Amino acid sequence: MYANFLLNFLGTGIIFLQYFLTFCKNITLMVQKCRVGTEPWGKENLLMIFVDLSTFVQTLKVIFSRKWRSPKRILWTCISLFFVTTVYTLNVIFRLMDEILFHGYRKMTIRPPLIIAANPRSGTTYLHRLLCLDGESFTYFRLYHTIFPSITLYRIFDFFAWIDTRTGRTLSKFIEWMNRLFFGGWEHIHTMGLDRAEEDEALFLYNFATPALYMLFPVFRDVASLRFADSLPEWKQKEIARYYRRSVQRFLYATGSEQKIFLLKSVLFNSRMKIVTSVFPDARVVYLVRNPYEVLPSTINMFTKMWKLHSPEIPKDSDVTREWARLGIDYYRYFHDNRNLMDRSNYLALLYSDLVLDPVGMVKKIYDTFNMTMSRELLDRLENEAGENNNFKSNHDYSLEEYGIDREWVYNELRDIFDEYGLEP
C-alpha cells in the first residue's frame, strides 16, 4: 500500500509537470507575440529547459519495481525529485523572465572555449583551479551558476551579495554553513561549494541526461540511456545542445565576460562529446590521462558515496558496483574513438603523473600549445599555489581488488591506451 501511494503521488507530480511545461510554452508564445519587430524566436524557445521525459519516467518505473524497490531508496527518490523539480520550476520561470528583461544575451558570441576533460579522478579539478588563477584570460562557472542558470537569478544573487558586504557578511556565513551541510562529506574527495569554481554537470541534471544520476539511481542496466547522452535520438541531442549554448550565453552576459575565454572542466565530457563539440566546434581540449588501475577504484569510491544513504545493501564487490568500472572503461574507449571530432591543433593530452610532478610546467605547456601569453604575475601565482599544495597528490589509496575487478580484464580492454601513453600495465 505504501508503494502504491507513492506511485500515485509521483504519477500526479508527473502530470503536474506536464501541465506546467505546457503553461510555460503558452507564456513563451504570448511573450513572443508581444515582442513586435524583433527576431522570431523559433522552436527552441517553446521549452526553456529540455527534459528527457521518457528516461525520467523509465527511471521511476524501475526504482518502484520489485527488483529495486526499498523504503530508503523510495524515500531518497522522493526527496531528490522534490528538490530538483522545485529548482527546475524556479529556473524555468526566471529563464522566461530573461527573455523579457535581458533578451540581448542571445547576441553574445562565445570565444573558442578551453575544455579540461578526462575520466573522473584524473586531476581535472586541480588543473582547472590552477587555470582559474588567470582571471584576466578566463571566465568559468561557479557551482551556483549551473544550479540556477538564469540571468535574472544571477542579478538577484548579485543584489544580495551587495547587501551582504554592507551588513557584516551574514549571508556569506550562511553560504559557508550551506556548503558544510551539503558538501562537507566530499571535503577530502572533491572540495565543493556554491561559490567555488565547478564543472557544468548540474546543467545536465535538469535534462535528466547525465550519468551522475546513477549516484541517486543505481540502475545502470535498466536505464542505459543515462550512460551516454550522445546515444540519445538526434532531436534530443539538439535540444540539449540548444539549452546548453543558451545557458553559457546567459552566463557570459550576466558576468560581462564575453571577451574572455570560457574555461570548462568536465569529467563526464566523454558521455556527450558530440553534443558539446557541436556547440563548440572550435573548442580547445586538454585531455588528462591517468592509469586506469588508479582511476577506476577511485571513481567507484567517489560515485558510490551517496549509495550508503539510499542503497547500503549494495556491497563493494558486486556486479552493480562494478558497473562504474565498465562505464569508466567505455569512456576511455569512446574518447579515443572520437578524437577526430576535434582538430588536432586544438587538442592536447597530458599525463596525470606529469601534472603531479610539475604542475606549473604543464600549465605553461597548455599556454604554449594554444598560443596564449602567460604574465609574470600569473606565473608567480601558479608557483605559490603549487608550493602550497606541495606537489598535488591524492591522499587515498584504492585498489581494484577491493571491488572485485581483475587487472588483466582492465588491461585487455584498454591495451592500446596503456601502450599509447606509456602507462604501467
How does this structure look, described?
The chain is mainly alpha-helical. It has a domain at 113-137 and 260-425: P-loop containing nucleotide triphosphate hydrolases (Rossmann fold), CATH 3.40.50.300. Helices cover 54% and strands 6% of the residues. It is built from 18 helices and 5 strands. The protein has helices at residues 2-34, 53-63, 71-101, 124-131, 143-147, 151-164, 170-183, 201-205, 234-255, 273-279, 292-303, 307-310, 319-337, 352-357, 359-369, 376-389, 407-413, 415-421, and strands spanning 114-117, 138-140, 261-266, 284-289, 347-351. It has a 5-stranded parallel β-sheet. The protein is globular. Mean pLDDT is 88; it is low at 30-46.
Topology of helices and strands:
Blueprint: H1 2-34, H2 53-63, H3 71-101, E1 114-117, H4 124-131, E2 138-140, H5 143-147, H6 151-164, H7 170-183, H8 201-205, H9 234-255, E3 261-266, H10 273-279, E4 284-289, H11 292-303, H12 307-310, H13 319-337, E5 347-351, H14 352-357, H15 359-369, H16 376-389, H17 407-413, H18 415-421
Parallel strand pairs: 1-3, 1-4, 2-3, 4-5
Helix pairs in contact: 1-3, 9-10, 11-13
Low-confidence stretches: 30-46
The N- and C-terminal alpha carbons lie at a distance of: 53 Å
Gyration radius, in Å? 22 Å
Mean pLDDT: 88
Number of helices: 18
Elements, N to C (H/E): HHHEHEHHHHHEHEHHHEHHHHH
Principal-axis shape: globular
Tally of extended strands?
5
Reported for the largest beta sheet, the result is:
5 strands, parallel
What is the CATH superfamily classification of the domain at 113-137 and 260-425?
P-loop containing nucleotide triphosphate hydrolases
| Helical coverage, percent range | 40-55%
Q: How does the helix and strand content classify structurally?
A: mainly alpha
CATH class of the domain at 113-137 and 260-425: Alpha Beta
Q: Which strand order does the major sheet show? A: 2-3-1-4-5
**Topology-level CATH name of the domain at 113-137 and 260-425:** Rossmann fold
Please name the CATH architecture of the domain at 113-137 and 260-425.
Answer: 3-Layer(aba) Sandwich
User: Which band does the percent of strand residues land in?
Assistant: 5-15%
